Amino acid sequence: MGPWNDPLYDTTRDLILRTAQEIGIDPNIAGRLAVPDRAIVVSIPLRRDDGTVEVYTGYRVQHNDTRGPCKGGIRYHPHVNLGEVTALATLMTFKCAVVGVPLGGAKGGISIDPSGLSRAELQRLTRRYTTEIINFIGPGKDIPAPDMGTNPQVMAWIMDTFSQTHGYAMPGVVTGKPIELGGSQGRLQATGRGLVYTVVDAAKHLGLELKGATAAIQGMGNVGYWAARRLDYRGTKIVAASDVTGAVYNPKGINLKKAYVYMQENGGIAGFPGAEAMDPTELLTLDVDIVIPAALGGVIDAKVAKKLRCKILAEGANGPVTSDGDAVLRKRQDEIFVIPDLLANAGGVTVSYFEWVQGTQNFFWSATEVNKRLESIMVTAFKKILKVHVDENLDMRTAAMAVGMRRVSEAMLLRGLFP
To answer: Which among 137, 253, 381, 417 could bridge 237 via Cys, Cβ 3.0 to 4.6 Å?
Structure first.
């Protein structure tokens, strides 16, 4: 649709319109929620270390700020485009609403492969991108965070660039910062930890004992790894794992601590001696209790959805299921319990919200406090969505979207349309 043309955006828009129709949301509100408030496209000239200058394209999309300042990550990846960023910003609006965080949705990124940059080049790229969007971000406007291809160091450079233009330190402009610059305890593990809180509740609902259960993780990045660690802690065997380098399988369970050391030393999990190599395309359809897609979006289409054999599908990635894949999963909801991305990976934005609050108050919490508050929010959100799922006979994805859309639409109706 128009400038937002992208498969993930099409899937997200379809979900909005379908949910609005199913739960009777005002069509005027639904139409407004299908497009972002504003989108910024910027050119980013980068002087490479050899003296040449290359120009990259960057984006920042703010979907809806009715419930509070916009919030969302910045990703550096070759496939970043306006449609994808718009879809992710849109999902973030409803994700914040689902967990009751008073923020709106945003997303940003640069179409680039950061692995080909030196540290100095990465810093120059980040600082120039920040100056290009600097009038659109801020603690009360839009608060970026790390995403694919970015990290706490990138957030530190954004914070410093923003602060230099204002003449004093403004740590509240970003979250996901290093602890030394006002970052929050528990932020690094938050998305994976929050996902496991929802898996625990789903297992209780299904009568599944996590101790001795099996799981497969697609994407052993920050989200997938920490989700695997927390499941392993509860006695679940991680029998398969993958990343961009390949996939491995061990029916007795992968030793995650050894796998982590191996990945740090070798740049990926492929070749890990504690497991055998497997075809990455077969990981999602393994006969395991829990499957966690925690890599890129759009990996579960109708063909893959028909082959899934898990009991719980916990979506660590944003938009891992396509529209046709979702149609299949709705028909199979008695076989596969879906924890949609709006809920499953909301732990990251929840603790980002905690970091923002701590930064504005200059009063910081312990890791125990952060994790306790995160668990409370995730459990409450799960129970709310499960109740809608059962009481209104909606699949879990639609139930989650219903909760988020109702909260956003109510706020929009109360504020009215200006002018």
So the answer is: 253
